[in-house]
Amino acid sequence: MNATRDYLMPGGGADITTLPKVSLHDHLDGGLRPQTIIDLGAEIGLDVPATDAGDLGEWFAEKSDSGSLVEYLKTFDLTTAVMQTREGLTRVAREFVQDLAADGVVYGEIRWAPEQHVARGLSLDETVEAVQEGLEAGVADAAAGGHSIRVGQLVSAMRHTDRGLEIAKLAHRHLGNGVVGFDIAGPEAGFPPSNLRDAFDYLAQNFVPRTVHAGEADGLESIKGALFDGRALRLGHGVRLAEDIRAEREDDENTYVTLGPLAQWVKDREIALELSPSSNLQTGAIERWGEELIDHPFDLLYQLGFRVTVNTDNRLMSATSLTRELWLLAQTFDYDLSDLAVFQLNAAAASFLPLEEREALAETIIAGFDEA
């Protein structure tokens, strides 16, 4: 993340970095520090594309800016390669929380796929325990530096493998001991949530909260599957829900908007959209509307009353932070502090915390924005 002074509100207002934030969609294997990849890679004899941290960071950003989710996901082969030992997982998780705290995050849900981290002999449970150890160390580090942060794990199953029920049971075993919910990730098109119906049945029967990647690399049918097969309480990205919204210009001053049944359902039930502006540009998720941030349907969804949230998705691949994403949106759509506060309150309300703790989180956000 660049210097704090680069992220003032338009017109030289409040410092966005210091505002309290909630991060709901942030991948552990997409948020490594380049130097950590270099260090851990050297320990296991892994060739990396660059041995200078700055150069490696640029390599990730360049390779990720492909316009294709499939190509974007290939960069994770390198990050997951250095996350196959207890030490590697613990270090990455600890630094992840440190970086969230530096970004002003007060609550974060960190998603990752344990099944991708067993190549060097760890069991699934051992990977979860190693990550939890790192997360707790990172929270302690933040507290020592005067920053209060809470975090939870979102255990992801890869949608193109056949381990959904196994991973669902893993999430349930660790629920309340670091894990706060479940997700499915990986290639979206061709791998619908219905393929993991047994996992979602199990999760529903055992009251495990669920968010599902949908509406990023596939369209409305994927979102339907997330809601009705996956019983998703949130949509991971969900940006292509805008395909179910029709805008018709009657004249130079009036535009009429009609919501399709799926969009109306999502809006009426306040199902949160985990939007990730920079990532959505990189993966081509908004190509139907354009190639610039101004083309992103974020503002349309916000103005229509959807529960929009702002996320980084993968901070390494997008060379970004939550502060930067908010700053970009404020610059592009002329948002003020009250808008940014709404995005954080939306995220707090959609988090997988118990009700009373969600309310306390909202109070923290309001107090922080009032002081800005």
UniProtKB/TrEMBL annotation:
InterPro entries recorded: A_deaminase_dom, Ado/ade_deaminase, Metal_Hydrolase
Keyword Zinc: yes
Keyword annotations from UniProtKB, A to Z: Hydrolase, Metal-binding, Zinc
Gene3D superfamilies according to UniProt: Metal-dependent hydrolases
GO function terms (MF aspect): hydrolase activity
Cofactor: Zn(2+)
Enzyme class: hydrolase
EC number per UniProt: 3.5.4.4
One Pfam short name: A_deaminase
Cleaved signal peptide residues: none
Residues in Adenosine deaminase domain copies: 20-366
Family: Belongs to the metallo-dependent hydrolases superfamily. Adenosine and AMP deaminases family.
Protein's name in the database: adenosine deaminase
Source organism per UniProt: Antiquaquibacter oligotrophicus
